[in-house]
Input
Amino acid sequence: MNFIYDIFSYPFGWILWFLYKICGGNYAIALIAFTIIAKLILVPSTISTQKNQAKTLRTRAKIEKIRQKYAGDQAKINAEMQAFYEKEGYGSMTAGCGTLLIQFPIIMGLYGAIYKPLSYIIRLDKATITSLTDAVQPLIANNKNIRLSEISVLSHIDELKEALPNLKASVWTSLQDFEFTAFGLNLGDTPSQHGWGSVYALVPIAAFLAALASSIYSFIRTRQQTPDASSNATMGCMLLFMPFWSLWLAYAFPIGIGVYWALNSLLSLVQMVIINKIYEPKRVIAKMMIDESIERRAKEANVKENISLLSKEN
Output
């Protein structure tokens, strides 16, 4: 699994390292810039998903007509629906799975780059990283998540100096010069270490509110497009699940992850609002119908022209 993680994380690590350098060695600013860039990379797939949702709405209406026309004959319904899907070019890749597959390596690479600042930002050699992460484990005994080891090293530099006196001075200089704070908060600390009464709690609260706003908007938009009771029940569960899951994630994990998650949810909301405004489903469907009419008329004109040519030859 680590091998797969490294494959996806390596190119994103270069981007984050580059941003870290041009942002004056500030990891927090580089992380924010990286999150924005990652969102921009996903814009085409998000637009594609929006268009496919509009296509799904139109497809649902046509499918309902087929079911009504051949009610009672399931074999005929299945045959007609299969023919319809083939004609429309509709399938799992156009229904949204394809865009999820595109997002998968980006999300994995992004998380890998965030979790491993020693590997991808400071760029220490593997032997040194192993020594540091092994030595930090007793200091974070309450946290069993091995992926947080590199982040944890940055929060225990003084203790590690005593545990690893033979490491080169350049290593400690690199670690100490690494700006791993935002607004005075150590990005490697977790809010759970400080409690809800600390300023660190603002991060999970921000993540919760951003996810809640995004979920509410998504729920309202889906309800308008699909006024189906079962769909609304499912969306209602997600409306509650995502914000509270974001709250737990940002509270239990280092605030570097929480900052990314809160910003990601906020950008998702902004992205949904803008794309829904530009690619409003009814407008997309209307354009699809116009394009289909133009294509159909072009085919009819071509057929008539061919018939006319054949008639002249005969």
